[in-house]
Amino acid sequence: MRSDLFSAENLEKESSQPGLRLQNSKLLKAELNGDFMARVGSMVAYQGQVQFEALGSGGIGKFLKQKLTGEGVPLMKVSGRGDVFLAENAADIHLIDLEPGDGLSINGANVLAFDSTLNYDIKMVQGAGALSNAGLFNCVFSGYGRIAVTTKGSPVVLTVDQPTYVDPQAAICWSANLQTGYHRAEQLGIGTLLGRTTGERFTMSFGGQGFVVVQPSEEPPGGLAGVAHGQQQQGGILGNLLGN
């Protein structure tokens, strides 16, 4: 049988080292000898002795935070020995290696998989106020290990060494040490009073030293809670959970 389908670029890539790696730009391969965490429903194929265990958001504390904020990652624990292939609606996949001291704030909708050695929590985006309909909460990862994130299209990584502004629906992830806020991009004027708009009413602002990853798409993040919902949850339970 002959076909370009069977060319070397489409054959399974082998490695002697376990872990997360790219099969291609839209497929993640996990060479499994232990366990890792993945988004529920992201498995497209596997070989070997592999078990899948649903974990909700990764513990009761994170489950409650997800219910209150709308943010989080519906997780499954993948364990055993074999090869597991993951994808998310043919989105582009990128690998990020975290080391001790690193922190990554990421929209939960863009988390595909990560090493079980990493820690993550759901935290309020500081400085968001009540100026955006994109949301107030993000997942923050820290520790040592690899995480696979998805983007719709090829992203740009902006170095934040001067005031930086990004559409909140295009911001995928950023250095957790950056100072965040919201900036009015659209100038008020007679056109605004007449109902005209540029479609760029507010942007997220970033300050400090670090990076922000921006995708070429402005689709609603999906994992973030709306402002009205977020404001309704201020107080007792939410304050205590986010403080943990």
How would you describe this protein?
The structure is a single chain. The chain is mainly β. The chain is 11% helix and 46% strand. It contains four helices and 16 strands. The strands form three sheets. Strands 1, 2, 3, 4, 5, 7 and 10 form a seven-stranded antiparallel sheet that branches. The chain has a six-stranded antiparallel sheet with strand order 8-9-6-13-16-11. A three-stranded antiparallel sheet has the order 12-15-14, with no helix packed on it. Strand 1 (19-24) and strand 2 form a beta hairpin. It starts with 18 loop residues before the first strand and ends with a helix.
Strand content: over 45%
Number of helices: 4
Label the overall shape.
globular
Q: What is the residue-mean pLDDT, rounded to a whole number? A: 78
Helix content: 10-25%
The quaternary structure here is single chain
End-to-end separation = 59 Å
* Major beta-sheet overview: 7 strands, antiparallel
Whole-number radius of gyration?
Answer: 20 Å
- Structure summary, number of beta strands: 16
Summarize the structure.
With about 240 residues, the protein is mostly beta strands.
Q: What's the layout of helices and strands?
A:
Blueprint: E1 19-24, E2 27-39, E3 43-56, H1 60-69, E4 75-86, E5 92-98, E6 103-106, E7 111-115, E8 118-124, E9 137-143, E10 145-151, E11 156-160, E12 164-166, E13 171-175, E14 179-184, H2 190-193, E15 202-207, E16 210-214, H3 227-232, H4 236-243
Antiparallel strand pairs: 1-2, 2-4, 2-7, 3-4, 5-10, 6-9, 6-13, 7-10, 8-9, 11-16, 12-15, 13-16, 14-15
